[in-house]
Amino acid sequence: MTTETTNSASLRRSLLPLVLDVAVPLGSYYLFRNGLGMSAVAALGLSSAVPAVRTGWSVVRRQKVNGMAALILVVNVVGVLLSFVAGDARLMLVKDSGISSVVGIGVLVSVRLGRPMMTEGMKPFLIKGDAERAAAWERLVSGSTRFRRAERTFSQVWGVTLLGECVARIVGVYVFPVDTMVWLGTVVMVGAMLVAVLVGGALAVEPMKGMLRDEVALGAGRGGVVAQGA
After folding, report:
1. How do residues 193-220 score in pLDDT, each as one tens digit?
2. In a domain, 229, yes or no
3. Does any domain span residue 228?
4. Domain enclosing residue 188, as ranges
5. ∠ at Cα 129 (126, 131), nearest 5°?
């Protein structure tokens, strides 16, 4: 399999959860609301179940639970249950913002505990299934202060961005009509993710790429001696 084919397959795997968690709930809301004539509360509740089902199925299929998946699953399930209890469309939209805030706080807490949650998503992207890169990663995590700082920075950027997204969406819920905020909230979320990708990439991913590249070259020349702190 060529590198181009591998990268295309990896891109599809990365985009599929985004499509399922963003596009499908958004489309299903308007289908339930406008196509089937459901109330805003019912349409929001049913469309919100999609991410919970997707995350739960992913956990069952892989038979492995990581911190991020578990947190998102719990928050989504609780959110769906509370949605039907609340019976208020605006509160249900606020619930969606609450998911971002809980995940953001969870990410920041994980940094504080020394186990940055976003590393699980970033590491495969940087290692790319290469054994030398994986070994270089372990050496840098064990011996490079600069590398560990960049790793923490990546999660910090995502945590802060998610909290900012939460605030923006809550304000929007009480400023715009519900039907408008359903799609506008998605725009805010995607925009926040784009900001996190760009800022996190500049502050953390690109420096880590360079350190990994240098460590792979050094490791090949010195027989894998543990990297020294930068």
Report:
1. 899 999 999 999 999 999 999 988 887 6
2. no
3. no
4. 3-222
5. 100
Number of domains in the chain: 1
Residue 187 has pLDDT above 80, yes or no: yes
CA distance 110 to 158: 12
pLDDT tens-digit series, residues 48-84: 666 666 666 665 666 555 555 555 666 666 666 666 6
Of 140, 137, 126, residue with least CA distance to 227: 140
33 found inside a domain: yes
The CA distance from 212 to 176, in Å, is: 46
Q: Is 191 within a domain?
A: yes
**Residue 186 near residue 168 (C-beta atoms within 8 A):** no
Q: What is the DSSP string of the chain?
A: --HHHHHHHHHHHHHHHHIIIIIHHHHHHHIIIIIS---HHHHHHHHHHHHHHHHHHHHHHHT---HHHHHHHHHHHHHHHHHHHH--HHHHHHHHHHHHHHHHHHHHHHHHTT--TTHHHHHHHHHTT-HHHHHHHHHHHHH-HHHHHHHHHHHHHHHHHHHHHHHHHHHHHTTS-HHHHHHHHHHHHHHHHHHHHHHHIIIIIHHHHHHHHHHHHHHHHHTSPPPPP-
